[in-house]
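The following record pairs a protein chain with its ligand, flavin-adenine dinucleotide.
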Amino acid sequence: MNKINTDKLSIAFRDKALCTRSGTCIGVCPTGALSIGKDAYPEIDADLCTECGLCAKTCPGGEVNFKSLTEITFKHQNIAESFDGHIQRTFVGYAADARMRKGGAGGGVITALLWDLLRRNIVDGCIVTRMNPDRPWYGEAFIARTYEELLESQQSKYIIIPLNAMFKEIRKLPGRYAMAALPCHIHGFRLMQRHVPALTNKIHCVIGLFCASALETHVALEMMQARNIDKSQVKKFDFRGGKWPGAIRAILKNGQIKRLHYSNFKDGAINYLTYLYSPFRCQTCIDGSAEFSDISVSDAWTRDEFGDYVFDSQSKMLVRTHVGMDVLNGATESGSLVVQDVSQNRHYQTHKLHTKKKGLTAPIRVERLLKKGKTAPKYDKPLPPISRSERIGERLESLIMSIGKKRSTRFPMFKFLTSRYGIILVKIRQYVKSKKYRRK
Ligand SMILES: Cc1cc2nc3c(=O)[nH]c(=O)nc-3n(C[C@H](O)[C@H](O)[C@H](O)COP(=O)(O)OP(=O)(O)OC[C@H]3O[C@@H](n4cnc5c(N)ncnc54)[C@H](O)[C@@H]3O)c2cc1C
Ligand code: SF4
Ligand code: SF4
């Protein structure tokens, strides 16, 4: 980069590994100097940059200050102690509309909340995502304004999507909007709220998704290559298609459905993907519950004593702000959403594995890297006391994830794990888990 002082720019231009690829810098830039480039990193047109520094100030990559995000969101500075963050009430539920419930990753709750805001004219559009209609192995953000468009946005796309780049369009449009976003998108949004309130005032509410990790932008392409699928024949790519909890599959132009893994979704496919295709910035991200949303939504992976899921096709909602409470009450009162209040029931706590991975293992990794003088995002959240075995666990997980750095190691590994031969490992995992549930 010549001419421009990179300290004025978002982290991607100084330390690419720390870029979340949230698209915040692209959305906030007042001159349109930034756009989405290769692998969803921002690209700059140096002639348009005025070095205003806004993209650096709102970048959620290099540093996440929980105290100031708490202040912007909740108007106080008490960082939440629990992994789930500040919560007013907790619900489980599902979309009342049968198509919406069936089409959702969980209970179609996010879409039901957004649809309710649209149909009651509280918002004019919703910032959401879909797989690109022409290149369905890549994700993209768009503004949904109708019921059908919202149905198109359903499902989790476990892939990096620079959602906040949509603010480049929002800036030119009249009206009010709602958005569904991952934790890093929300960090960027809250920083924009501080630095460019005129732009973020157009957002009525932010619905957050729990997030273990997004996956590299090439993940869908590599999955199809592993199963010898010609991408030119692919019409649609689903990360969670079919009956809940769904399967990763490619739908061909001739209507054939090609499932991309033999084992089930939760214990097999997604589990392996988050080890092999997780970007470095996701491996060092410690907000797994979308702490700064108005309402956070997660899968309701709650199990009974035999280890079977209690809630098929339902989602869990953590309501955090009064805006979130109004949105949820509006949706239940108008019949868009069916909910059950589980605030007092300890069985609905976020499951241990997610809490451990993002609330403990990732912070240990960050601390270790920073101590060694290596690159990692900076956080102001204090680390809890850590045992020796937890430190060893982090090293082991980091070692496994390092296999994902090179295609030459990750591709054959992924191919094996998702093949018929990999099922034996999944069976072992399921057996160990079922023992654990029966012991409880
Ligand atoms: C990358 C990723 C990681 C996740 N990790 C976890 C986890 O560890 N634990 C857990 O409980 N839940 C996780 N979720 C959330 C979960 O998979 C469901 O999305 C959530 O429960 C909502 O389901 P729903 O049926 O209510 O939503 P739906 O009605 O299916 O709507 C889904 C909404 O999510 C939005 N969305 C989908 N993908 C993206 C994306 N990449 N970026 C931004 N927005 C997106 C869509 O635009 C849509 O508005 C994750 C989701 C994603 C995308
Ligand atoms: S004009 Fe401002 S926001 Fe845009 S790239 Fe330059 S410094 Fe960043
Ligand atoms: S793990 Fe963190 S950085 Fe990665 S997509 Fe999720 S919220 Fe963003």
